[in-house]
Design goal:
4-stranded antiparallel beta sheet; single chain; alpha+beta; 6-stranded antiparallel beta sheet
Length: about 350
């Protein structure tokens, strides 16, 4: 079912990336009114339901696999989870997993100011894909200790929806206007929405729970295993056993997801962790740094470090490094751009 063409109803000259809050709100009101098509709840696409109600009342929700992101644009909605009511007002959202069957009730709506909201169901495969990309690119994740949350929260509670997330939703809805845009652009916009939700602290737990409780993600598990065992002399075969795959199957899956081989990623993580120690440490011996990142041989560590960063570990610790050297060394090492971090410090003489 295709929504009516409503391009003429949008604000003339509107810029999608506007930094003002008012413009996307007005545009969202227009979008949801057009998609709703009248009073009631309408499933405009599989996994996307738009609601418009002119009076308060209960709303029956059927649990679906994955994560549900509810965004209220106008009015108020009560989301009751485990006897705790989360009231979602205008420009607020809530995220919950499929294990919850919250009681929903529209608590503020009128004919003059109807309740307008959307419910977007997100498949866990998309969450795993985006969260893995974030994990790979997250510089703070490069630690010898294991990161991770243990809360297991199934519902985010309500949170304010910022202008960037709002624009992401707008782009997604507009990508549904045409068949080609829906096939090509909508999946990209959906990933952007997940990425924005992952940046909201209270949303991270339910997204993480849904991702982990679905089919196992060997790539994510491997990355976490590598980062929590950098002090050990682990091999690719050790990592493959940890994620319960053969070495060849694991290597193929990992490269297809991340863009580099497990060995290249492990090596990159070791050297990047060493670089961080050398920058923040004080008087660390090269042999101590080598052991701290899993190198049993100091000479092997020095050779690998110099091949990547164009200077020895000691020279690096003394400030003799540059952006250009890091970029060139990373390209020579063959690692994917997502695993590199360019540090903007001046080169030494």
């Amino acid at each position: 079912m295709t929504a009516p063409n409503h391009l003429l109803l949008r604000t003339k000259g509107a810029v999608v990336d506007s930094v003002t809050q008012a413009m996307p709100v007005k545009e969202m009101l227009v979008e949801l009114n057009c998609w709703a098509g009248g009073v009631g709840a309408r499933e405009v696409r599989p996994g996307l339901t738009v609601c418009r109600f002119d009076a308060p009342g209960p709303y029956v929700w059927e649990a679906t696999p994955g994560i549900t992101f509810c965004l209220v644009i106008q009015g108020r909605l009560s989301v009751d989870v485990d006897r705790t009511a989360h009231v979602c007002g205008s420009l607020e959202g809530v995220v919950f997993t499929d294990r919850l069957s919250p009681a929903l009730e529209v608590v503020e709506a009128s004919a003059d100011a109807p309740f307008l909201a959307m419910f977007l169901q997100i498949d866990t495969a998309i969450i795993r894909r985006v969260s893995t990309d974030v994990l790979v690119s997250d510089a703070a994740a490069v630690r010898i200790t294991r990161r991770g949350r243990a809360g297991g929260t199934q519902c985010s509670g309500t949170f304010g929806v910022g202008v960037r997330l709002l624009h992401s939703v707008l782009r997604f809805l507009r990508a549904l206007d045409g068949e080609l845009d829906e096939r090509v652009l909508a999946p990209i916009c959906l990933q952007e929405i997940v990425y924005r939700l992952l940046q909201i602290v209270c949303c991270q737990d339910p997204l993480d729970v849904a991702s982990r409780e679905s089919a196992a993600d060997p790539t994510r598990a491997a990355i976490e295993y590598i980062r929590s065992h950098l002090t050990e002399s682990i091999t690719v075969n050790d990592i493959a056993r940890e994620v319960q795959l053969s070495e060849s199957a694991f290597a193929h899956t990992f490269r297809a997801t991340i863009g580099v081989s497990p060995y290249q990623f492990l090596k990159s993580e070791r050297l990047d962790a060493a670089r961080r120690i050398l920058i923040t440490g004080s008087g660390n011996k090269v042999s101590e740094v080598a052991r701290a990142v899993g190198y049993s041989s100091s000479s092997h560590f020095i050779t690998a470090f110099k091949r990547r960063y164009a200077v020895t570990p000691r020279e690096y610790a003394n400030g003799k490094y540059s952006c250009a050297a890091l970029e060139a060394a990373d390209r020579q090492d063959g690692t994917h751009a997502r695993t590199a971090e360019i540090v903007h410090f001046p080169a030494g003489n």
